[in-house]
Structure formats: C-alpha cells, structure tokens
Amino acid sequence: MSDQDKDRSMLLQKEMLAEHYRRLEAAPETREPVVYTFVPGNLTELIRSFGALPVLPEINALQSAMRGKSQGYIAAAEKGGHSEDVCSYVKCDIGMARAGNVGPTGTRLPKPDLLLLSYTGCYTFMKWFELLREEYRCPTVFLQVPYEGDGSQTPAMRAYVARQIRETLIPALEKATGRRYDEDRLKESLARSRAAEDDLVAVLQSARKTPSPIDAYFGAVYYVGPIFSAFRGTEEGLAYYRALREEVEQRAARAEGPATPAGRLDAQKYRLVVEGPPNWTHFREFWRMFAEEGAVVVASTYSKVGGTYDLGFRHDPADPLGTLADYCSGCYTNRSLPARVEMLERYCREYSADGFLVHSVKSCNSFSAGQLTMLREVERRTGLPGAFIESDLVDARYFSAANLKNRLESYFQMLEARRTGAAVPA
Amino acid sequence: MTEPSPRAAVVDWAAQIAEDLDFAAARAHLAENPGRKAAGYLPVYAPREIVRAAGMLPVGVHGGGDRLEIIRGDAFYQSYICHLPRSVIELAQSGRLDFLSAVLFPATCDVIRNLSGTWQLVSPEVYVRYLDLPQGGASELAAEFWKEELGVLAADLGRIAGRAVTGDSLREAIAAYNAVRSLIRELYRVRRETPWRVPSEELYLLLRAGETVPLEAFVERARAYLAAVEADAGRVRDKARVVVVGAFCEPPPIGLIKTVERAGCSIVDDDFLLGNRMIDGDVPLDGDPLGALARAFVGRAVRNSTLYEADPEGKRRLIGERVAAARADGVIFASASFCDPALLDRPMLRAGAEAACIPCIAFQFAENTGQFQQFREQAGTFADAIKLWGGE
Ligand code: SF4
Ligand code: SF4
C-alpha cells in the first residue's frame, strides 16, 4: 500500500509512532524517564502521569518482524543460550537489545529507568523482565494481577491489585521519575481513555454490518495499536480514535469493505471469527490468503489482549486505582478458558459468522495451550465449522505459506459447500 | 523364598505405587474409608495441609511417564507444548482420575493454568481451582492475598468433603506436614552426605509414592527406609557430585535418573517433585494457621524457576549457592522440552554458574523419553571431566 492508498487514520498513527520513537531516542538528552511494560495490563495513564514514556517490548518485537529483522535477533539470542522452544518475542527483544537496541523505526531505544512488570495473563512476562533486568541492570517493580480462574474478578483480587499499585508501584514510579504522584492528572488521562475506548468499540462493533467496513483481525491490529501501547489517555490517542471512528462510519455508510493487501474487500464471501495472535513475519501475505478468497474477519480475540472494551469495560476516572485493577484483570489472556470460549461463542452469534478459525502460535502457551479444546467447544456450541492452523509470531521458521494456504483454501471450500448444500470435499 | 530386605521392601512398595497409572493405592484407601474423598493437585506446589484438614486425601498428579500410551491426549495439545498436560489429560479421559472430587492447578506456568480451564470445560462435575500463588517476593500484602485464597480453598474443600476445615484440623495438618517435610529434609541430607547409600531413583520413587498414599503410610515407609539406610554403610563410590536443575514439573523418566547415576554422577541435590520441599523448614503452629501457612510460602518458598525472583542478583547467585550447599562439583540443567519456566531461566542460571566457574551441561527430555544413550554419553563425559580436571 502506498501512502496515498492508506486511510487517514493509518497515516496519523504512523506519525504518532514516529514521534514517540523520536522522543524515546532523545530521552537520554531530554531526561524524559522511560518505563518498559507489557501490553496486557499496561498502566499507560499511570506511567504517563509521572511524565514517563512507555516502551512496550511486544510491540517492538512484532514491528521488528514486520520489517524483516526478527530472524537475526532470534538467532543471536539462541546463539547466546536461549532455547528454540520458548517465546520468540522474548528472543527477538533480547537479540535487539544486544544489537544496540535500535528499534523498529531505526531509532535507538533508551535504556529503561524502570521495568514495570505487570504480570497479567502471561507467565513468560516474569521471565522476560528478569532477563531484561540482566541486560539493563535497572530497577524492576512487580505487579501481580490474579488470574480470573473462576471466570471473574473477586473483590479480594481487585483490592490486591489496587493496593499493590498504591503501595508498591506508585512509590517505585516516584523514585524512578523524581515526580510526585498526581491523582488529578491521572484522572484527566483516564477520562480521555474512556472517550477513546467508546470510539474504539464503535469501530470494532461496526463489523456487525454486512459488508463489514473493517477487518477485525488484520485490520484491527492497526486500530488497537495506539490504545494498546503508548497512547491510551493521551490527546493524540483521543484524536486518533475520533478520526478512525469517523472514517469507519463513513465507509460503513457507503457499504464499503476495508482496505486489504488484495485491494478493497467489498465483496465479502465469508465472515470469520478468529482466535489467537497473527503471524508478524508474513503479516501481509497471511492477510492476503484471506482477502483473496473474500474472507473478512468480523471479530477476533487478539484485538482484546490489551483490554476487553467491547465487553463493556471503560476506565473510570472516579476510581483511578480500582479502575486500573479492573482493566488489568479483564485483559483477554487473563481470562479463564471457559470465559474465552463464551466470548468466542458470543462473537460467532453477534457478528453473524460463517466460521471460526484458530491461529495457534508456537511461542505462546498463554494463548495456545487449550486451544484445541476451545475449538471443539465453540464448534459444539455454535454449530459452526472450525479450523485450526499453526505458525508463530516472529519466528519465520514456523511459517509455512504453502501449508497455510492449503489449509485455508480447503476450509473456504468447505464453508462454500456447506452454504450451497453440496458435498463437503474431503 | 528369602524375604526382601527392609530397604528393598520399601523400594518395591514405592515403585509399585509410583508406577501405578490406576492409582490403586489411593482408590483402595478411599474404598476402606467410605465417605472420604480425594483431591488431586498438579505440580509444583499445592498447600496439601488444607486438603488434609478437610479430611480429603491429597493426590499428586504428575503425568503418566513412559508407561502411558497417549491415545486421546494428542487431540488436546499441539506438538509444541510439553508432554505433561497431554498425559494428564490422557489419565483423565481414560477414567483413571475419576476418583478425584477436586483438582487443584497451581500457578506453575500457563500450560497448567490453562489446563485448569480445559478441566472446567471437559469435566464440569469436578471442582477445579486455580491456585494463584503469590509472586513478587515477600510482602505482607502478598501474604494477605494468599491467606484469602487459602481461606476460599479451605471453605470449598470443606463443603465438598462434608467436613468444615477448622483451626484445629488445620493445625493438625500443618504439624503432620511439618513431619513429612522434616523426614524429606533428612532423606536429602543423608543422600547429600553419603550419596552411595541413597540412590536417587529410590528417593524419587519414595517421594512420588508419598504423594499418592495417606501421609501416615509415607511417614512409616520413609522412616523404615531411613533406618535401613542407617544400618547399611554401603560401599563408598567416588562419583562426580551433581545438582540436577530444571526438572521440577514434568518428571524425568526413572530410566534417565538411573542413567545419570550409572554414568558416574551422584545426584546430591535436585528439584524433582519440588512441592515437597517448597517450604523451607517448619510452618509455625502457634497463632492463626491459615496466616502461618500463607506467610510460610510468601516468606520461605525456595527460590526456583516458577517464582519471580525479586532480588536482582538472585538468579546469578542461585546455582552457586545450591552447589555450595550440596558440596557439588557441577550442575546438570535437565528440563522438559518446551518447559517455559525452566528454559527461560536457564540462560540466567547458567551465566551465574559459569561466572562462578561451576561446570555444567544441559539437556532436554520428555517424561516418555525412551532412549538414554545420548544422556549416558553426556553425563559420562561430564563425570569424567569433573574427576580428571575438576570440570575444566
Ligand atoms: S508467551 Fe504469549 S503472551 Fe507471553 S510474551 Fe510470549 S507471546 Fe506474549
Ligand atoms: S513441564 Fe514446564 S511448561 Fe510443562 S506444565 Fe510443567 S512447568 Fe509448565
């Protein structure tokens, strides 16, 4: 896609990111403090209320992969003793750090003043920051977000998180940034988050329409970018989501589909719900496999890893620490498998899906362990045909284009056959 | 026919129970005690005191090893997920775990975490609880949170068992497990000091059996074993003393443990069945028992790969400390394939070991690994190197 073909929101996002990376590069001179943290359970408003800039290592890893850099980084990490069996995000990040920490946009990333380990929905996060602490020898602060094993957050879980934020995180942020905690500033930021979240939900739910004006998996990766990373609660974030919503609403009014690597997808043959993160090393090629067959994704779970706003959650400025606890708890991978199945079931119905697809990635036990059971359960509950495909996040060795294409083509043929009542091809 | 020696009798008893995929001993115990129920728990650490205090039998669920044919389990797990959950699911789907009224899933890793959800989906009639172990180091806040969690577990198990957990039943259970911990410490001490007298395969089998039978049966056999060992000086063997690190969850096949020891190494410390030794020392019996149990975990859980390391120097120092405490010559990093906690930790632990000039080797296994040749060669070469050149 040339810049001309890109949506206005995409260009806006590109500028926001470039500016953010520029500020990060300049941080050692401008003395803006830098806090590394993870996407699920990120406390961006809190971090920014201390005047600090967030760095999200998963975003760096996935962007490195989209720019063809991840393989070298992974190879370097494995050469340094990291196992082939573990999460490729971690290895990509370690490799990047060891290669001078030049970020995906070509600018140098500063060292962290603080690693804010929000242990939300992923065990590997703990190891990742223990490993980064070895690289940077910097302070680390830990936040345990209890897992919603029984399907919901209990008052005790909520209180535990809120108290850790007050008693541990805030003092650590004060120390790392040299600034006092300013609750009013945090509240203002949370109010902006809330407004942006309304807009994001309107965008995601526009996929209920036929044709869908968005792709809620590949396209949604761009839509959730700012709110999942450094821009939740910021003025730029607010402006971005306003522009995005307008753009999508206009597209919907014109009954147009989203832009895809195979052109604009107006003629949508299959509406799919997708579980699991995408592959980043061949992102556009992967997307094209769907778009060329007329498949549009109408809902996905990956677009909820940084918050499940479509289920109703909004940041509440009236209860700043409680709302941050609620936010963390509700992130997709912090939810039990039955709760994840319920979400998928609901998506299949509410978004009038024709089928349901799991893209399972080798890297991620948090997502992947249990997905085969989820697949069967969603099939059983909805009666929709499911499919299971596999690759990886940022390790290209596990992306087999021919295999995936084959699997997808047979799946689409099967959907077609069901629709026309013809015999299902073997 | 000659009677087996007291020691052989214990080892035979342990092997039979540890290798029994049908949990006959646990089933027999339940049959002999009508109304009594059992609660299973996955690795690594579960507060068995609470299970006992509810009058239930705690049963360790550590997979199926190399004796279980996986028929259904592979339909649940992709090839890039470790072996343990598929053998556990195999046990469950084949009805071998149908005597469990509850199953507890500790926060060991995301595989076990998600297995709790799989269980909820496929066995909705069983009580499933994810045990969200406190992470982040010793803090009063973490202890309070864990105490609350333990309280919920106690109330739930009391309801299932039909016998409320009380302060007295908890204190009794804590005292009983203090005795178990102390016996296990003693077994480890004797092996550490005279490894030729306590082959690691025997120690492993005894501990594994101990997680299936009532605690009293284990205590009796473990005492008999210790007495037999004390009575037999054994033949001193000059082997390389090694610490095995990383096999705290999916257990290595017994054959692998034997292979390492027959290749010239004596295992003088390990993290097999680590839950047994997770709490270092006794849990105090005075005061509020739930609080004591919670604080014992938060303050005294042994450092290991399943827990966050709050001390920035901790990872680098850990192997050196363990090697010094065990007076070991070297370290074998042995992890299950695809085991996130062990494999993500390994580069940090190994860097620390190498910085302290501690010889180490590393390999990966699965619980159903059947070929040990490669391990024999690796361990043999390692032992030779240690003995000849101090590992240089
Ligand atoms: S294991 Fe999954 S959730 Fe965790 S860091 Fe890796 S990709 Fe992210
Ligand atoms: S072997 Fe490792 S990855 Fe597998 S369940 Fe156990 S701790 Fe988790």
Largest interface, Cβ cutoff 8 Å? A-B, 53 and 55 residues
Shape of chain A: globular
Q: List cofactors, ions and other ligands.
A: iron/sulfur cluster
Q: Quick one: overall form of chain B?
A: globular
Total E-strand runs of chain B: 8
Q: Uncertain regions of chain A: pLDDT < 50 for 5+ in a row?
A: none
**How many strand segments of chain A?**
10
Work out the strand percent of chain A: 5-15%
Main β-sheet of chain A: number of strands, strand sense, barrel status? 4 strands, parallel
Q: Output the structural class of chain B.
A: alpha/beta
The whole-angstrom Rg of chain B is 20 Å
Distance between the termini of chain B: 50 Å
Description:
- The complex is a heterodimer of chains A (426) and B (392).
- Helix content of chain A is 51%, strand content 11%.
- Chain A is globular.
- In chain A, the strands form three sheets. In chain A, strands 2-1-3-4 form a four-stranded parallel sheet, sandwiched between helices. A four-stranded parallel sheet of chain A has the order 8-7-9-10, sandwiched between helices. Chain A has a two-stranded antiparallel sheet with strand order 5-6.
- In chain A, helix 5 runs parallel beside helix 6.
- Chain A has a domain of 179 residues: Rossmann fold, CATH 3.40.50.11890.
- With 426 residues, chain A is α/β, with parallel strands linked by helices.
- The model of chain B has no long low-confidence stretch (mean pLDDT 96).
- In chain B, the strands form two sheets. Chain B has a four-stranded parallel sheet with strand order 2-1-3-4. A four-stranded parallel sheet of chain B has the order 6-5-7-8.
- Chain B is of the alpha/beta class and 392 residues long.
- Chain B has 14 helices and eight strands.
- At the A-B interface, helix 6, strand 4, helix 7, helix 13 and helix 14 of A face helix 5, helix 6 and helix 13 of B.
- The structure holds iron/sulfur cluster (2 copies).
